[in-house]
Design a protein that fits this description.
There is one protein chain. This protein is an alpha+beta fold and about 60 residues long. It has one domain. Helices cover about 45% and strands about 15% of the residues. The chain contains four helices and three strands. The protein starts with a helix and ends in a 5-residue tail after the last helix.
């Protein structure tokens, strides 16, 4: 993902999108979540997982101007 793509993300994203930001695919991203190895906190909302875009930005060193 480019910097502009990262900064245009909504407040939270799904695990697949967050995984793409870190350069991993869907299967690996969900495996990392399951094993507690995902690089940022993952929230469980009902039966879905969500990741804060702000946490993604922080982990990737991207900041809004």
């Amino acid at each position: 993902m480019t910097r502009d793509e990262l900064l245009s993300l909504p407040v939270t994203v799904d695990v697949e999108t967050a995984g793409r930001a870190f350069g991993v695919g869907r299967t690996v991203a969900y495996r990392m979540v399951r094993d507690g190895e995902f690089p940022v906190p993952v929230l469980r909302v009902g039966n879905k997982y969500r990741v804060s875009s702000a946490e993604l930005w922080r982990a990737l060193g991207v900041a809004p101007e």
